[in-house]
Amino acid sequence: MLKNFSLHPQLDKDTHLLIDMKEFQVLLHKNATIPWIIIVPKTNETEVYNLSQDRQESINDMTKEIAQFFETEYSTTKMNIAAIGNMVPQLHIHVIGRKPGDACWPDVVWGCEYPYKDYSEKCIERLKLHLIKGFNNK
Amino acid sequence: MLKNFSLHPQLDKDTHLLIDMKEFQVLLHKNATIPWIIIVPKTNETEVYNLSQDRQESINDMTKEIAQFFETEYSTTKMNIAAIGNMVPQLHIHVIGRKPGDACWPDVVWGCEYPYKDYSEKCIERLKLHLIKGFNNK
User: Fold this and answer.
1) Which of A55, A78, A119, B85 is paired with B48 by a 20 to 30 Å CA distance?
2) Residues of chain B with pLDDT under 50
3) Is the pLDDT of residue A19 over 60?
4) pTM score of the predicted model
């Protein structure tokens, strides 16, 4: 765990905080048009392969949980999972639910301009509760 | 391991085969302008989080080895690591070495049009030997 963790301003601006855990923050991209969660490990490392095996396993477990939720709630059929970090150096993993015909399909979401839609407060709470429960069951 | 593994024609067209292992194929994207390796697990799964823990660890180890090579040989400073699969359903993991000022920086490579450059045979052989050695040392 990193003492004095502070979220990069760009991530803070683009997302809602879903869960703040000891080792991770889990963020929801504000644009609801494409379901998109961002996992931020509390670390100074900038590459995912430099994290401990435990942390890498946790990320995979969380990703799986998120994928299942996206499949059920948003009928997504493919996950796009990526660590890019060209613009925001703080390590963050994109977990994006995709399906044929969505606003960017079959292109990637980065660099794709697509309409903005807000999440409802109710929806954010639901997502939060579901993921907290899912992550705790592991 | 998957019996009768067969590489997707699009991946076959876009890459040179670097290493054919029991559990993986390791491919080199033909365009040398940006160093880009693709790891293909021999599996019918389409999502990386559904692979066994062992396979996920192997992918991380290989990614780290590739990153070190790209840093040394091509002075890359950031890795872009992603499983997308919107167009090619066969599971494949992109491992791309990036640096400020490269042909797509700071954008992602997918959807970016950039000049084509061939790898020399010598360079491909060197990369192959280096990675085989690196992967075996794990």
Assistant:
1) A119
2) none
3) yes
4) 0.96
Q: Any chain B CB within 8 A of the CB of A53?
A: yes
Residue A13 lies in a domain: yes
Please count the structural domains in chain A.
1
Q: With the CA atoms of B122, B18, B58 and B90 taken in that order, what torsion angle do they form, in degrees rounded to the nearest 10?
A: 150
Nearest CB to A67 within list B49, B60, B87: B49
Query: Is omega for the bond preceding A106 within 30 degrees of 0, making it cis?
Result: yes
CB pair distance less than 8 Å for B83 and A84 = no
Q: What domain range is B118 assigned to?
A: 9-136
What 3 state SS string does B94-108 have? EEEEECCCCCCCCCC
The sign of the torsion formed by the CA atoms of A91, B26, B24, B46 equals positive
H or E element, residue B27: strand B24-29
- A48 closest CB neighbour out of B47, B81, B105: B81
